[in-house]
Amino acid sequence: MNSGMFEMLGSTVTIFMVRPILLQALAVIYIGLRLRDLRGETPDPEVGIKAVYHFFLTAGLFLVLGGLTVISIDLMNGTLDVRWAGRDKEFFNETKRVAMGLILAGGMCSGFFFGMLLAATNDRKFPYARRAFVGMRLAVSGVIVLGALTAFMITVLQKDPSLRAFEMIIAVFLVWGPTALIHLILLRYYTGWRQSPPRSRARAESQRRRPRDEEEHDEEDNEMA
Predict the structure, then answer these.
(1) How far apart are CA 1 and CA 47, in angstroms?
(2) Contact yes or no for 5/95 (Cβ under 8 A)
(3) Cβ distance 32 to 143 under 8 Å?
(4) Which of 41-45, 85-89, 148-152, 200-204 has the lowest mean pLDDT?
(5) Which residues share a beta bridge with 198?
(6) Contact 126/151 with Cβ under 8 angstroms?
(7) Could you give the CA distance from residue 35 to residue 119 in angstroms, rounded to a whole number?
(8) pLDDT digits (tens, 9 = 90+) for 170-191
(9) CA dist., res. 2 & res. 56, Å (int)
(10) How many Å apart are CA 102 and CA 63, to the nearest integer?
(11) Which of 22, 103, 199, 220 is the most buried (most CB within 10 A)?
């Protein structure tokens, strides 16, 4: 079995391992959105379908990032080893073909569901599902960056560190580091949006205003009398 088949097998196994995690995240996020919607002043009638759309958008983005990671690792192969004699190998090799398949499939999936969110939902008016899934993607990319950083520190402390290990760690950083940073900025931006107050707070504010209104009406009645 050649290296391309190994890459394809590894990618397929990774997808089947990540799928239950994504499904569990979808369930947790949907329950959280539904509970928040029950407390909100104006309920979102499309919270369920938007959660599904954002789920497939996220799954497609992870496929794209997985393909970019495979390409980055392949490009970094031998860059730190001056003795490496394989620089004249084929550029668009079988490993990159497998990675491009992941990128194309994930890109089409993400593009389709992103268009559905913009054209067929109220995602702009109620961005809470978008913010929740951005937070989930930030958590995943942050964990991957933390794992790569830990692997880098462990490799540095070895007596005879492997250059190939450094190459793979750098390749992961090049893909997932900017991904985590972008999602951190997006989450900060979405968190800064003005939100409608919960029903309980709105009810409390209305109860506070009611005695004042009653006092004003009483004063007006006294003046008229």
Answers:
(1) 46
(2) no
(3) no
(4) 200-204
(5) 40
(6) no
(7) 26
(8) 999 999 999 999 999 999 888 7
(9) 31
(10) 6
(11) 103
* pLDDT at residue 54 in the model: 94
Give the residue ranges of DSSP H helices in 40-93.
Answer: 47-76
Specify the pTM: 0.74
Dihedral sign (CA 90, 93, 95, 97)? positive
Q: How far apart are alpha carbons 64 and 56 in whole angstroms?
A: 12
pLDDT of residue 159: 86
Instruction: Please answer whether residues 73 and 168 qualify as being in contact, where contact means their C-beta atoms are separated by less than 8 angstroms.
Output: yes
CA distances in angstroms from 121 to 97, 125, 130, 221, listed in the order given: 35, 9, 12, 50
What 3-state DSSP class applies to 211? helix
What beta strand segments (E) does 17-133 contain?
none
CA–CA distance, 153 with 131 (Å, rounded to integer)? 32
- Dist CA 43 CA 45 (whole Å): 6
For residue range 6-27, list pLDDT tens digits in order: 445 555 555 555 567 777 788 8
